[in-house]
Amino acid sequence: MKVTIIYDNTSFRDDLESDWGFSALVEVVERKILFDTGANGSILLSNMEKLGVDPRQIDDVFISHSHHDHTGGLSAFLEQNEDVKVWVPISYGGVKHAKEVIKIEKAQSLYKGIYSTGELDGIEQFLCIKTGKGLVVIAGCSHPQMEHILDVAAQFGSVYGIIGGLHGNKAGSLEGLDLICATHCTQHISEIKSQYPQKYVEGGIGQIIELQ
Length: 212
Known about the structure:
Low-confidence stretches: none
CATH topology: Metallo-beta-lactamase, Chain A
Strand content: 25-35%
Protein name: 7,8-dihydropterin-6-yl-methyl-4-(Beta-D-ribofuranosyl)aminobenzene 5'-phosphate synthase
Shape: globular
Organism: Fodinibius sediminis
Helix content: 10-25%
InterPro entries: DHPS-like_MBL-fold, Metallo-B-lactamas, Metallo-beta-lactamase_dom, RibonucZ/Hydroxyglut_hydro
CATH superfamily: Ribonuclease Z/Hydroxyacylglutathione hydrolase-like
Number of domains: 1
Distance between the termini: 6 Å
GO molecular function, one term: transferase activity
Number of strands: 13
Domain Metallo-beta-lactamase: 23-90
CATH architecture: 4-Layer Sandwich
């Protein structure tokens, strides 16, 4: 598994534009999944180009929830590549110009080793990737309680780590994880970094996390 952060509030490079929102490229075996699309299509596509990510090579788009800072770039992306499956939570509205739109209500397998938690608390779904170290959860904002997110994800295997926005979830809710990359809307980022210095990985555009 390889995760490249494309859209975030901070950046590792001066040529990559930061903005409020989140998007990441998740590469697993033979599939390239764009997780969320940030708030602004031109920023999304510009960062993709500078990171060497070709929109035409994306197989799937996974939308965590309907908030604009996670969906604002979707239309611009689909103008570059509409030949994709778009996985959205059950409460999400319509998506135009995609090859296939799949609404997800409950936890399910998408592909071998790739899962969705289904829509939790009527707002957000999470992408779960099986790796040799355990399950990695990719999060948009983590609006639900972290304990609930991890409990649902655990049906697919032992949870190793989480990457993405953690919203108001506090450091104690991450106890037991071995990888924590907090991005975007995380409110208690200083506390989390302080409590898990050996497990914490900085977020930001251009960050790449790889696990076998």
